[in-house]
Amino acid sequence: xxxxxxxxxxAARYTFIPERAAEFLEDGQTVTQIExxxxxxxxxxxxxFEDALENAIALVGSKVVCLTGEVYDTIxxxxxxxxxxxxxxxxxxxxxxx
Length: 98
Fold this sequence. Notes:
This protein is of the alpha+beta class. The protein has one domain (10-97). 27% of the residues lie in helices and 38% in strands. The chain has helices at residues 18-21, 39-48, 86-97, and strands at residues 10-16, 31-36, 53-60, 63-66, 68-73, 78-83. The strands form 2 sheets. The chain has a 4-stranded antiparallel sheet. The chain has a two-stranded antiparallel sheet with strand order 5-6. The chain is globular and about 40 Å long. It starts with 9 loop residues before the first strand and ends with a helix. The relative contact order is 0.20.
């Protein structure tokens, strides 16, 4: 099990696709920000709402980490959204420290 990031709270910013945003947010909003205690909590929310999200980022200390892997499907001619794994995000954070 991964150890939670405990130095400070993590701000998670989720952008919902316009067609689904009203299910989660009010007044035509598409973006919300949540304070989380760990990176695992941020990822849990991202995975829970994955099919309704356009983007998800975490503000971890001084780093802005994009939690999404966006893949363009040339056959369907559309972007496919996926949430990165904890290992992928840990690697991104470590690389920024080198």
